[in-house]
Design brief:
This protein is α+β, with helices and mostly antiparallel strands and 527 residues long. The chain has helices at residues 2-21, 25-29, 34-46, 56-67, 69-80, 87-93, 105-116, 120-123, 160-181, 187-201, 204-217, 259-280, 315-329, 333-343, 352-369, 377-390, 397-416, 422-436, 440-449, 451-459, 461-473, 484-505, 509-526; strands spanning 124-127, 133-134, 138-145, 150-156, 224-225, 238-242, 246-247, 282-284, 292-295, 301-304, 310-312, 345-346, 393-394.
Length: 527
């Protein structure tokens, strides 16, 4: 607790020193800020000499590193919130994605044996003591099962779970204080988002679940690969997965691929990421070039690893995002801005109409530059979300993670194919996903999902029609209400949909046909 307080107070004092040093010359010597300058001078003498002369963003990054894994993860979450935080801060915090020191193998061995309840030799025929990689919460070792399968073992670092849970309790208290000091940057909201994602990452069975969900979503596309999960060799602190033997985009092996192979890699990557985001609403939320692999074979494939952090969109948000992206890549900026505005949460004093106009103007400038490759779709979406702060329109962290996935798609795509036309490629894949929304099988599923509500409305139609008839029979009736036709149209649509649903779900063709006929009659009557 004292260490945490010391680092945070050091950061506050350091920010005061940075502020005073940034003042214009006249303010450096006037009497108005004499006390502030004096406090800053005293603070500078007590601060760590390695940090005192650094910019605020660099001081923040170094102090988060000193505080340990929880705060490193918090910095990583802050790094992607480019819609809420200054760019100087997010750019500096991206350095926290570098590798962190690994735990000793003896401690890792003991943890695996305790978690799985057997000696390591009984679990694996061979394991490499040197880790393939080490992150803030876990590290990964390559191994071979007794059946001869090459696997990787992901292990939470010893003691990290309890340390993180203790730190999260403290962070919640701290964020409530910071929310009063700097409400513009919504620290409490950022910490709550961070807590939600981090708690899930502390249970590796969640990552195993995620991997199986992704594999199910892409079962019909064998060229897009996810690791197989070995549940019998896994637990909450240990996860064993198949080893994907490939190379990262941008490595020298990438440029040994011929042109058709590179084009296939780009198309598969675009298909995978856009499908995750806009068809499934379940996507890799920690997507960067290091979590993508190009897999060699008779035909080149792409693989995704490190599946602990995922984003989810409920159906309504996913549809809105699909319509937004479809409108964007097809140049309909008015419709795109309309859909984006409906996704945002409107804060106190929010100005949705002002936000819509600003997004339209920004998008039009984007379209002027697309032909010259000077503006990316991901950057446009991020800049549009940045405008939300000005108009009190807030976007959930999943939407910012979506942009991170699109940045990866564009960056990796251009790494493999420098002449890539991102807009044209996106249009191909998003148009296919858009059309799939209106296939008969999908519409049938939607009808079945909403069946109870439609059937309830259909069951009440006779009573509604009877009441309407009594009202029409009254003498000296006032002129019809202007919304009457709209109400009739809604009732007609409900009859037709309810009838179709009954025809699809059951053999009650007479009831279903009757409802459809009533709906058509009401529609013709108002036409």
């Amino acid at each position: 607790m004292l260490t945490v307080n010391g680092q945070w107070f050091g950061l506050l004092a350091g920010s005061l020193v940075v502020y005073v040093r940034s003042l214009p010359p006249e303010a450096q010597h006037g009497s108005r800020l004499w006390l502030t300058r004096r406090v800053a001078a005293l603070a500078a003498r007590r601060l760590d000499p390695e940090l005192v002369d650094l910019p605020f963003a660099a001081q923040l990054r170094y102090r988060l590193e000193r505080l340990g894994p929880t705060y490193i993860k918090l910095g990583q979450i802050m790094a992607v919130r480019e819609d809420m935080l200054p760019r100087s801060v997010t750019d500096e915090l991206k350095n926290l994605f570098d590798q962190t020191p690994a735990a000793p193998f003896l401690a890792i061995r003991a943890l695996i044996e305790t978690e799985l309840g057997q000696p390591l030799a009984a679990l694996f025929s061979q394991i490499e003591e040197r880790p393939l990689g080490s992150a803030s919460l876990a590290q990964v070792h390559r191994a071979t099962t007794h059946a001869g399968h090459l696997v990787v073992i992901k292990v939470l670092k010893p003691g990290v779970r309890q340390t993180v849970l203790d730190d999260l309790t403290l962070l919640r208290w701290l964020s409530a204080v910071l929310d009063r000091l700097a409400p513009k940057y919504q620290p409490a909201a950022i910490v709550e988002e961070f807590r939600s994602y981090t708690v899930r990452e502390l249970d590796l069975t969640v990552e195993a679940d995620n991997g199986e969900v992704f594999a199910a979503h892409f079962h019909s596309t064998p060229a897009i690969v996810f690791p197989r999960m070995y549940r019998e060799l896994s637990g909450s602190s240990v996860l064993t997965m198949s080893y994907l033997d490939g190379f990262k985009p941008g490595s020298p092996a990438t440029f040994t691929l011929d042109e058709p192979q590179r084009a296939r890699v780009v198309h598969l990557g675009a298909q995978a990421i856009l499908q995750m985001l806009y068809r499934d609403g379940f996507f890799h939320a920690d997507l960067h070039a290091g979590n993508l692999l190009i897999l060699n074979g008779r035909r080149v494939r792409v693989g995704f690893i490190d599946l602990g952090m995922v984003g989810r969109f409920e159906d309504e948000t996913r549809r809105r995002l699909l319509y937004y992206y479809h409108a964007l890549v097809n140049g309909d900026v008015e419709k795109a801005a309309q859909h984006l505005g409906r996704i945002a949460d409107i804060g106190p004093g929010g100005d949705p109409e002002g936000f819509r106009r600003a997004v339209v103007e920004l998008s039009r400038r984007f379209l002027l530059h697309t032909g010259r490759g000077e503006f990316s779709i991901a950057r446009l979406i991020l800049e549009s979300m940045r405008l939300g702060g000005r108009y009190r329109m807030r976007f959930r962290v999943e939407l910012v993670l979506m942009v991170k996935a699109l940045v990866t798609f564009e960056g990796v795509g251009r790494m493999v194919d420098p002449d890539l036309d991102v807009v044209a490629l996106s249009r191909v894949h998003i148009t296919r996903i858009f059309r799939d929304q209106f296939r008969l099988e999908r519409l049938t599923r939607e009808l079945r999902r909403n069946g109870p509500e439609l059937l309830d409305l259909a069951s009440r139609l006779p009573d509604l029609l009877t009441k309407s008839a009594h009202l029409l029979d009254r003498p000296n009736m006032p002129p019809p209400h202007p919304l009457a036709a709209l109400r009739s149209a809604i009732v007609a649509a409900a009859c037709i949909l309810g009838g179709v649903l009954i025809l699809v779900q059951s053999e009650a063709w007479l009831t279903g046909s009757g409802l459809v006929l009533v709906g058509l009659w009401l529609y013709q009557r108002e036409a």
